[in-house]
Amino acid sequence: MNSTSFGDGETTADDLPGLLAAWARRCPDDPAVSHLDYRVNPRGVLTKWSWRELDERVDAVASWLGGRVRPGGTVAVLIGQTPDYHAAFLGALRAGMVAVPLFPPGLPGHGERLASVLRDCGAKTVLTIQDTAVEVEDFLRTHGLPVDQIVSVDKLPATFGAGFAPIPPAQDAIAYLQYTSGSTGDPRGVMITHANVVANARQACAAYGVRQDSVSVSWLPLFHDMGLVLSIAAPLTSGMRAVLMDPLAFLEKPERWLQALSANPGAITAAPSFAYGYCAARVSDWEKARLRLDTVLALIDGSEPVQAGVIDRFYAAFAECGLKPDVYSPSFGLAEATVFVSAGRGGLIRRLDRAELAAGHAVAASANHPDSIRLVSCGQSIGQRVFVVDPDTGIPRPAGEVGEIWVAGPNVGQGYWGRPEESRRTFGNTVPGYEGSWLATGDLGVWCDGELFVTGRIKDLIVVDGRNHYPQDVERTAESAHGAIRPRNVVAFSVAGSDGESAVVLAERAKAVNGVDPDEVAAAVRAAVARAHGLALREVRLVEPEELPRTTSGKISRSACRTRYLADILTEAV
């Protein structure tokens, strides 16, 4: 079994529960995880757990599970954004179970997805807390889910685990199932081993320059791959402390996130592109005057692909707060690789010819080129191999040629839970001349100047009359076509018809706009898209605010939007 040295003669096994125990021995009274709760006090109430307290609470959960669940059994975690999530998740791992990080039933619009995941993983034990226990019980009963036992981990006294003797897990044993943001009725749980998550957390810490005195500040949900690694795994591998806040707290007042970054020197954080644009638009000058962002270590942007315009707006808005351009870290990752694959620093941008890129070639374009696009680099990988290949042959493409991104490394998961054939297709690919299995990510990318640029997802490409169109390009054009369209709330996709594939655009109405003429908006979008992309749209539909379905990480789901469109169940704007 591998081991890690802390530099003072102490060693520990390379698994998350073992790392926790080592930190609890090394610095028991130092803060490990904190929670900023804005539900009662708008200024936030801070709760802190030390390394010793967290270790004791994890022992309590592990001890309770140890006598009730067989080793290797699945245990579902249905808890909100609090330190109790750490206790439940790590307790399941310490007891030798397979954790399934999920969310409480109250997450709007995702009840059916939660039920589908619970059926797929087969968990008969659910970990929750007192505040949501009744809601969880009602949910399980309503959906006919055969759960044998539910425990509120915050009711277990810390002394419950006294004398518990964990058995260090095998490195290749499954630690948890990370469910992807797929369609509601078709959940896929990526099998992540103990070795996978520790390797990926260390890769990420190296990429972002994390030290023990750094601080993870996050509102990303802990059941999400990035939220889990950033707030649980990376702190355990580096010794940095974690500061949590609820996603709703951020959405209500985005300045709360920036205030937490300001109050914690050496902060590292992550968010999708929309969050940076949201802050630029919503945080007032009065709030900016109270922020000090010059000590931020890394701002990770994990959208695919990252939006260059958002970088511009965010830095224009917060440069006065001391924000340094080189802390911005556009990144590429996916659950199948645990999460992290590559990262850049500072947001290297290349301007490319849009038509050539759609044809598979990265050709530089001048700033005054009438049909150019700006792409943001996702940098390079650490500790893993990343190729851009022909998806049909697996043969690497030369620099400047678009292909599918394939990944190999110790962080790549073991496949999908209960899906051997799909696992083989996704995780079992070969690259001629290279050893080992490769993960086919489904993402398109290109190497330019030694850095990885992500261009889009294969399944999302809009192919009309033999020409490729990236949906994010069409979406950006559409959202700027008319003032009644809500920014960053547009989706484009293709549908099949008797004459072949055609494109559809759905756009949410801006909340401040009422009495708009949908035909006028549609005409403006059609004209803009035809002019910019040479693409005739089958339909443009303006819908009510918050009508477009989103993934659990907050991004608009193109596949779910397409499903609702075809089922004709969207509420049109009036």
Automatic annotation (TrEMBL):
<dbReference type="InterPro" id="IPR042099">
    <property type="entry name" value="ANL_N_sf"/>
</dbReference>
<dbReference type="InterPro" id="IPR025110">
    <property type="entry name" value="AMP-bd_C"/>
</dbReference>
<keyword id="KW-0436">Ligase</keyword>
<dbReference type="InterPro" id="IPR045851">
    <property type="entry name" value="AMP-bd_C_sf"/>
</dbReference>
<feature type="domain" description="AMP-binding enzyme C-terminal">
    <location>
        <begin position="460"/>
        <end position="569"/>
    </location>
</feature>
<dbReference type="Pfam" id="PF00501">
    <property type="entry name" value="AMP-binding"/>
</dbReference>
<dbReference type="InterPro" id="IPR020845">
    <property type="entry name" value="AMP-binding_CS"/>
</dbReference>
<dbReference type="GO" id="GO:0016874">
    <property type="term" value="F:ligase activity"/>
</dbReference>
<dbReference type="InterPro" id="IPR040097">
    <property type="entry name" value="FAAL/FAAC"/>
</dbReference>
<keyword id="KW-0276">Fatty acid metabolism</keyword>
<dbReference type="InterPro" id="IPR000873">
    <property type="entry name" value="AMP-dep_synth/lig_dom"/>
</dbReference>
<protein>
    <submittedName>
        <fullName>Acyl-CoA synthetase (AMP-forming)/AMP-acid ligase II</fullName>
    </submittedName>
</protein>
<keyword id="KW-0443">Lipid metabolism</keyword>
<dbReference type="GO" id="GO:0006633">
    <property type="term" value="P:fatty acid biosynthetic process"/>
</dbReference>
<comment type="similarity">
    <text>Belongs to the ATP-dependent AMP-binding enzyme family.</text>
</comment>
<dbReference type="GO" id="GO:0070566">
    <property type="term" value="F:adenylyltransferase activity"/>
</dbReference>
<dbReference type="GO" id="GO:0005886">
    <property type="term" value="C:plasma membrane"/>
</dbReference>
<feature type="domain" description="AMP-dependent synthetase/ligase">
    <location>
        <begin position="21"/>
        <end position="417"/>
    </location>
</feature>
<dbReference type="Pfam" id="PF23024">
    <property type="entry name" value="AMP-dom_DIP2-like"/>
</dbReference>
<dbReference type="GO" id="GO:0071766">
    <property type="term" value="P:Actinobacterium-type cell wall biogenesis"/>
</dbReference>
